[in-house]
Design a protein that fits this description.
about 120 residues, mainly alpha, Rossmann fold, two-stranded parallel sheet, 6 helices, 4 strands, about 10% strand
């Protein structure tokens, strides 16, 4: 998916919450400087979707079991034009209004569309 984004064939959106969560994980694994370096590379490939009051309000009022996933969903919805949420954790998106796919499913669907 990142290779497709690099060539402009795909637009990746990542919420601002994703950057914060990734920093937390990467800092523990790689340290502060390397974490920031990796996030800068991600920023070159991804458009950042804002998480603001409307997304939080929607997440709080939603029936999602996982609050963080609810925020991700409503950030994607607010972005507009998002055709799929790609995640390894599809189960937490049972109430999503946007199709939810694994990375493999997403790439397979692109292949089928080209046939």
């Amino acid at each position: 998916m990142f290779a497709l984004a690099e060539t402009g064939e795909l637009t990746i959106c990542a919420s601002s919450l994703s950057f914060s969560s990734l920093y937390y994980i990467l800092r523990k694994l790689k340290g502060h400087d390397d974490a920031l370096s990796l996030l800068r590379k991600l920023k070159l490939l991804a458009r950042v979707s804002a998480v603001a009051d409307p997304e939080i309000q929607s997440a709080l009022a939603s029936s999602f079991n996982d609050f963080e996933d609810a925020i991700q969903h409503f950030a994607a919805k607010a972005e507009g034009g998002v055709t799929a949420i790609v995640t390894r954790n599809k189960g937490d998106y049972a109430t999503s209004e946007i199709p939810v796919l694994s990375a493999d499913e997403f790439l397979a669907s692109r292949e089928r569309a080209r046939e």
